[in-house]
Amino acid sequence: MLSLCVALLVFYIATKPPPPKVSIKMAGIGEFGLGEGVDGSGVTTKILTCNCSINLIIDNKSKIFGLHIHPPTIQMRFGRLPFALSHGPKLYAAESGSSKFKLYVGTRNKPMYGAGRSMQDMLESGKGLPLVLRVSLHSSFMSFGALLSLNSTTKLNACLSFIEHMIKSIALRHTIAPA
Ligand SMILES: *[C@@H]1O[C@H](CO)[C@@H](O)[C@H](O)[C@H]1NC(C)=O
Ligand SMILES: *[C@@H]1O[C@H](CO)[C@@H](O)[C@H](O)[C@H]1NC(C)=O
Ligand SMILES: *[C@@H]1O[C@H](CO)[C@@H](O)[C@H](O)[C@H]1NC(C)=O
Asked: 20 to 30 A from 123, CA-CA: which of 55, 66, 115, 146?
């Protein structure tokens, strides 16, 4: 038993995988609408609905270990204001080369208050919308069940400037009243 453990340990050290290479890319804007509406307490404000898709690209870089990705957290911010949060599914990167996963982040009928006004001004001025995407994920290389594991936590930031012509046609024309 002890020699088996030693053998496993030696094997593990010898094959210790390098940390995975992870990157994110904006894939598309499925939906985007900023309109006039009322919040739960009857205050008139800007209401946002959006849904963006993101490609998460992962290189497991290990010849032996599969890479488990625990459900990633995706946050979208407008300046410093977080306005959308979602959790992706559990993922497994076992392919050689890089694996690509599609994730979504969005919000429905979210009152934006003061920020909504600035968003609209930026869209109307044609400057685009500075948005920040934050993805944090926890990954483990695992082999022999979970007997040998190497965990790492990755935080990624991407700054996006939504190009206004892409969304101008769909933005600013909805009037959404939350239920
Ligand atoms: C990723 O892990 C699997 C083990 O499940 C391995 O077969 C594959 O070769 C690894 N990928 C790379 C790029 O080495
Ligand atoms: C965004 O779109 C995807 C795919 O259509 C869907 O699964 C997801 O629930 C949507 N998210 C929001 C917040 O609408
Ligand atoms: C790595 O993460 C897995 C799953 O969350 C856990 O079971 C395991 O104990 C962790 N290993 C280490 C060395 O932290």
From this structure: 55
